[in-house]
Amino acid sequence: MPVLSHTPLDVPVRPRNREYDVAQALATDWFDQHAFKTAWFNAMSITFPLGEKFFIDSVRYYLDRIDDPKLKADIRGFCGQEGFHRREHQRYNETLCKARGYDLDRMEARLESNIKRAYRFLSPLERLAATAALEHITAIMAESALNENDPMIDSAPAAMRALWQWHAAEELEHKSVAFDVYRAVGGSERLRKRAMRQATFFLMVDVMMGVLHMLRKDRKLWNLRLWAQGWSFLFAKHVGILRRVWSAYKEYYRNGFHPWHRDTRPLLAGWQDNEDKRLLA
Questions:
Q1: How far apart are CA 219 and CA 102, in angstroms?
Q2: Which of 1, 97, 156, 182 could anchor a disulfide with 187, C-beta 3.0 to 4.6 Å?
Q3: pTM (2 decimals)?
């Protein structure tokens, strides 16, 4: 029986049922006391609950076609991890919107509309390709988040940092599950790359729409200085959070690419060591 899972044997895809008390932080501009930086991460959180359900459903659709016991176990771990992420970010989003006066229904309606279109116009394989693409995006952002130079380390409350790093670590653990399923069921390189282009566009639009909504509610939408600082936060050379992952993002378009060509086990080991110390404190 061929081995279809390429997640390293020493990287268990293990769900951790974690809860984080971030209500106090969410009532503030918790990231560096900066409205744009905070809105960017909050807007990403808005996309997670519906997005992660889409991911789970896209991967689980093919479970019966997978014979490799390890990949089957990886799929179960993936669904468990994404399920806990979905729950925690739903709590996060509801708490945030209640505290800040944001319209969660309005922001989620846009996401729901996009997902309905995906089910209407995309095949199961195309939805799986989109999932694999978005999992790569979340994985390279997670890789950056667990790097010792990540700006959140010194710019966010401890509980908020712990939540985002827990999410990041599990994204790295399961980063190739959807990809391995996609390859196992015969997904092509051409579709894989096309799905990444499409997924990148829709994700960036969805996050920016969330940022716009939040800054409008905060009465900071037309603050040009804030937008200039936000641009630097995203794109400044060496430090912009999107600029930092650009090289890793482009790797996805290389023929023969696999997510574990980027060996992120040292980052996971470092996070686990710090997490063990945090939980014992």
A1: 12
A2: 182
A3: 0.95
